Automatic annotation (TrEMBL):
One of its GO terms (molecular function) is metal ion binding. Residues 40-187 form the HhH-GPD domain. Its cofactor is [4Fe-4S] cluster. [4Fe-4S] cluster binds at C189, C196, C199, C205. SMART domains: ENDO3c (SM00478). It comes from the Bacteria. InterPro entries: DNA_glycosylase, Endouclease-III_FeS-bd_BS, HhH-GPD_domain, HhH_base_excis_C, Nth. The gene is nth. This is Endonuclease III. One of its GO terms (biological process) is base-excision repair, AP site formation.
Length: 238
């Protein structure tokens, strides 16, 4: 654990230098807009969500307006995202709950956020970290991939990754670390052909399950064979 924490501190300092911006990928003017945005963003791009939100909130500015809106009209406004009918229903019901139970204010507590349809732990942590400044480990596909490659966790599922990292990463560093790792996963440590040769985190990375761009071009080993080769073990050894 000590070695892992020490590597984390090195990684955190480099990420601070590389990615000053820790703001949300979803553009919003007030908390309820971010809440709707994270519901829409599931299996959709942030770019697409950012195109939808302005028109949606010009038409229905408040939770009350959206709760009373015809479902068909919401569907029309959000139809460019995946699963738009289900998301339209979730948005309408979420708006009703926010209006009736919390008087138009987006709730802060995890247990309250999880009562909202279309909101899971990742979305709830986005709200808690972005709006309320609470400690938040935000596990999406980019984050999970990068922290596993770095060797900061052995866990595989989002909830277990969140629980593991939240147990030892200092609370004040959890949200900015999440946002910076996400940016790093999009820009450098991509799912396919990560740019390991130019990555500043490389000296502190265990490179679990990685074939870099340079190794792929040279016919490198990758995955477990990469780890074995770096330790001097034959790729065929067991």
């Amino acid at each position: 654990m000590h070695e892992r924490r020490e590597r984390f501190e090195h990684i955190y300092r480099i990420l601070e230098e590389e990615y000053a911006d820790t703001s949300s990928f979803i553009s919003f003017a007030e908390p309820f807009q971010l809440l709707v945005g994270v519901i829409l963003s599931a299996q959709s791009t942030d770019r697409q969500v950012n195109l939808i939100l302005p028109e949606l909130f010009v038409r229905f500015p408040t939770p009350k307006d959206l709760a009373e809106a015809p479902a068909e009209e919401i569907e029309t406004l959000v139809r460019s995202v995946g699963f738009f009918r289900m998301k339209a229903r979730n948005i309408k019901e979420t708006a009703r709950l926010v209006h009736e139970r919390w008087r138009g204010r987006v709730p802060e507590r995890m247990e309250d956020l999880l009562l909202l349809p279309g909101v899971g732990r990742k979305s709830a942590n986005v709200i808690r970290g972005t709006i309320y400044g609470r400690p938040a480990i935000i596990v999406d596909t980019h984050f999970g991939r990068v922290v596993r490659r770095l060797g900061l966790t052995e866990e595989r599922t989002p909830e277990r990754i969140e629980r593991d990292l939240a147990s030892w990463i200092p609370p004040g560093k959890q949200y900015p670390f999440s946002m910076r790792i996400n940016r790093h996963g999009r820009a450098v440590c991509t799912a396919r052909r990560p740019a390991c040769e130019s990555c500043r985190l490389a000296p502190f990375c265990l490179r679990r399950g990685v074939v870099s761009r340079g190794e792929e071009e040279r016919g490198g080993l990758g995955d477990d064979s990469t780890t074995r080769a770096r330790s001097g073990e034959s790729p065929g050894a067991r």
